[in-house]
Fold each of these.
Amino acid sequence: MIKLDYLTKEAFRGLNKAKLSTTTAIFTITLSLILISIFISLSLYSNRLIKAIKDKVEIEVFLADDISSEELNDLKEKIRTIGGVKNITYVSKEDALKIFEKEFGKEMLEILEYNPLPASIKINLYDEYKSTDRLNKIKQQISALPKVDDIKFPEKYLEIIEKNSSLILTINLVSLVLISLSSIFLVSNTVRLVISSRRKLIELLKLLGAKTSFIVSPFVIEGFIIGLFGVIFALTILFLFNIYLSSPFFKNELKITLISYDFIIYIVLIGLFLGVFGSVISVKRFLKKETT
């Protein structure tokens, strides 16, 4: 207990002696955590957006005008047996006309004396089947069925989503790695200044036979304290931003939040890791330099 009290007091004494460096380190971690939270929030939002778009993806099977009731029921049963089909919806010629008039108005079809729109079957698929490759395979299976005139699904649209989703994931991962590495580098350099200012104390402890773990411990505690303050400031700023985003003064139609309650624990762990790991790197480099 005495040892822990001594190490903690040494840690606070060291931070107090290097106020500028300590403030810089705390600011670095605070900014890093805010940026990490923003990138993760954008990543989660982009994933939700892509999923919402994919949920609307469906196959539309246009039927021949001379299809009978028996042939229609038989076709429905065969489509239901195809792998990946979640549910189907039949749209009659009359329903198709109503949908068209609702979206485009009656004027476009008034010149015709008949309903040119075909009946169709809309097929909703399970999420794992909503890819261009699997949709094309399902399309081939349905094309072989009788009384099927045409099949459509947003193939180019899906290709764009698939390419962009991979790109977004890559950008977010690279950004998170760069921010984390930059934070560790900045924190370690800042803590190194603190260590350099206490060079004589470290040399004295080494002469007295103090173990490396004993020498290193105060700086690890310093890193923990720096990380903790960085976490507190970052969470405070993020919560204030969340309050602003959810206020009536800001039109947040996309429902974006910079931090969720489930993610707080990760922010805390990341902040403490940046502070402690940055300190450990600095101390090890310093001690290695001193022994060479």
Amino acid sequence: MIYLDYAATTPLDPEVKAAVEGVLSVYGNPSSVHGVGRQARQLLEEGRERLAKALGCKPRELVLTSGGTESDALAIYGVALARGRGHLVSSELEHSAVLTALKNLERLGFQVTLLKPDSRGMIHPEQVAEALRPDTLLVSLMTVNNEIGNVYPVREVAEVCRARGVLFHTDAVQGLGTVPCRVEDLGADLISLAAHKFYGPKGAGALYVRKGLELFPLMPGKQEQGYRGGTENLPAVYGMGLAAEKAVAVLAQESQKLLGLRARLEAGLLALPGVELNGHPTLRSPKHVNVTVLEADGEALLLNLDLLGLAVSSGSACASGSLEPSHVLLALGRSRAEARASVRFSLGRFTTEDEVDQAAALFAEAVGRSRLSSASPHSAASAGA
């Protein structure tokens, strides 16, 4: 199996895995005052401090969570519910964690504006400025799109928001380890992260909260400064800190490697007739390649890619099992059939040139089979038999 679905989740880095396994034997509750609890607290705070150093913030500005979805929810619900009423701005391209939270807030009486992207999937600072109102509480715009890989001008958006006294949140779940994501790079008041996107363990995430901000806590309790109750996931948090530290240290080197692999993969995919790139051609993460196969049966395409041993995705991993086409691609103007016949390739730390070349060849075979099946009553498996 060739794994090219790093945007869905990354393999656990071997060094991080070894460190996490070493911490598993520390069973104390970090909130306990006895020696075993203090040992756990020390390791928990070490993980938090490593993550804070990687982000360029203070450890106390990090609220530890279970992952990116909870971090997004805490940022959006936390700001809105602390204020009680008002207006929020986001985009049609956001992760479902953000869009669902905003939809729920509308049911509670809040007003929401979703910005429309241009044909290449970009959102511009001028759009944000035009959408702001006197009662706008928060703007939420992702750093890197999880499906098409577009990199958004979050620093410029943050400046627009600050000038108008509006809080700015960015979902940087796809960003850390892919593009510069220090607090000074993003300029945001709130930043959401998930460890398993940068070679850390699943079940750990964080929300950067600029000092002085007030949030409504979603999970009651005394942990995490009262913002997130519940015993922290010590091994995962410790691993997250190490993974973030390494991701930042190797960012420049890894980005150059991925850009070369991305160009190699794109050349192979786009050489096929009727295969088109989705997203911006240059303002894009070095690991993302999203393409649409015209006149192909989308279900057959994905089935054949899997049968041929290529692990890729049709969109967000959080929407797997859904029959609905990608909301991101629909927002870009793709038809429902085209959106279903689209594939996201995402590269990573352990991807090789040989894997990229094999992936392009396997994709060509899968495209041929899916186009045969779309013109025939036989299934994709029959067409490839």
Amino acid sequence: MGTIHLKLPESLRSQKLEELQPSYFTGLPDYMPWVTNVQVVNGELCVGKEVSESGCLCVPITLPSSLNGQAMPGLDGQSPIMLMTATLVERLEAYRLLTELARGKVNQLRNQAADWISGGLELPEELDQQITQASKLFCKAVCESSEQVADREAIDALTKAIGVGEKLVDLYIEQVMAARLLRMPKLTTLLGCNVSRPATDHLDDLKAAFNTIRLAVNWSEIEPEDGQFHWEPLDELLAWAKPLGMTVKMGPILNVCPSHLPKWIEPLLGNPDGIVGAILAFTETIIERYRDEVKYWQLSAGTNDPGLLEIDEEESLNLNLQMAAIMQELHPSGEYTLSLSQPWGESVATGQPAYSPFVFADALIRSRINLSALELEVVMGITPRGSRFRDRLDFSRIMDLYGLLGIPLHIHLGMPSSMSEDAKADAAFQYQAQGSPFTPEQQKNWCAQAGLLALCKPFVSGVHWLHWSDDAPHLFPHCGLVDAQGNLKPALEVLKKFREQYLL
């Protein structure tokens, strides 16, 4: 194991270790995590990694209020945002944390601008000059001998680079969307939402926002006892959805979360053959029942982190391949996807026995699984299955990384609108600690910024919101578009505008 030391600025030396604990190392070229151990000793962040190779360090940092004008959560001067250094090699001398984070962000900004320019982006001179200004601010931080002054200048470089990065992303979205809409007046991208109960209120709003609907499958409700099936709620949901005139999907058949696993399988945990056999039996039963009515399916969600099932990575890969084989045999005309949680792979850094999600996806595709799309679950502000806030340069980079796999992507977006108790959410999922509470306006802003970036990517063929209403059973607290009292949240208006302006 290698260890790297970084000098903490005075503003962070009083932070509790748990606030810096989410820090982790990633390796190049795929930016997937290594198992990482974090300690704070004598004002230094001591980060141990499982390998001795050089890598990039991701650290949650709350930036100053000079970014208050930015709409993205994490850029509000109150909430932490994950930032990444450039490559760090092992050495005896400690690095300056803020300087290295500034180096990483300026490097990412310059490289992304160069990549997009080579792809045809027209960069205005004013924005080019602002990128240069961010580079010069970083140079001042590097050359400064006083640590305190260097930290202030590094913060200036960071905030400048992030602010310019947001402008660069806006420009990229504008030009890519304009180019795509020149070729076709409306995009064929799927814009969808998960529904677990028939939506009787605000049905017109649902139909105005989405062209696709996914009917949630809860194994624990359907098969509460081994071999005893209760199909009535799902039958009712399907009967409600079919007349809506929307593309209807069903799934995930297997959702790796406590509220969706029936109690009767608990004795099978630790017995891979038993648990896999039970999952495959349910898969076969549900496909046989609905294959004449549903063409589009989501096979699984969260199986890239199979710890809850007490199976290992290879067994989880084989499980997905066997589920796909059942689909191909029983429903050869059906199309199916599967969803990966935590696309940045944060849980791998804590030592969870799982492949990184990118490696997991790559292994599945190399096994010639016939997916119509790969889905990424991008849930901000939730633990343990969610991710920490990042700026849009980083969000764009992670989508581009998975785009290299060569199959279409579907992006599942979600973020809470409140930090109050949510009785109908899965109790296993909690809010991540952050400086400012979640609000409906924050949710709206993130939906607008992240959603439009996902929509503009040519290889993204679907964008989905996690669930419709907080008044129906769901996984993640307060991530719906309708609150528990039946009031519409402002994020829904954003999605309606997406549909009206860009989509069929």
Amino acid sequence: MNPVDGQTAPEVVLEARGLVRRFPMGKADVEVLRGVNFSVARGEFTAILGSSGSGKSTLLHVLGLLDRPDAGEVLWNGEALAAAGESRRAELRATESAFVFQFYFLLPEFTAIENVLIAAAIARGRGRAPASRKERHERAVELLERVGLKERMQHRPAELSGGERQRVAIARGLMNRPSILFCDEPTGNLDSRTAARIHELLQQVNADLGQTILAVTHEKVMAECARRRLVMRDGVIGEES
């Protein structure tokens, strides 16, 4: 218990400890992450604001187990993962996390609902993913209705607007009830009006479902929709804005 306010400390879902990531450039290595430390509590909506080249996407990829750090540690729900084997990392990516990218990455030959269902197929009933075919279909329908695509479930990506594609991507990300939803410039490819609707949707997902969200962005408007805002400069997390 906190001796000051008597409240239990929030549960930490994600923690970065001294993360360093270098990339070769000519004869030298460029240090993109320079000892990053911070944590994200369960149910928190955190945005990391940074300009191009600040290291924010590299950080998200390391935190999301798409890349490995050169030094430091990543912990999910208290489990240290920087040195975890690839099979364990792949399992966690499928069951405990999800990504929403700037360019959607939907399968063009699949309908909206099929694109959402593919996440459950990859998880294969592990973790909190729906186990039965009936449960998977009901979950996909529920999520597409929640993101405002009730009438667009059978449409393919080419038949959807950019905002609608991103809504499908968000529904897909929520399919397996991930511990954390990583968003990499989720509105960077959208006009301001459509982006505002995605901001509102992410706020609703966080508030209504208690979904933990970590987003990186160069857009101040996007960052301001989060409950907690951090600033990244030159490979380190700076002050909270």
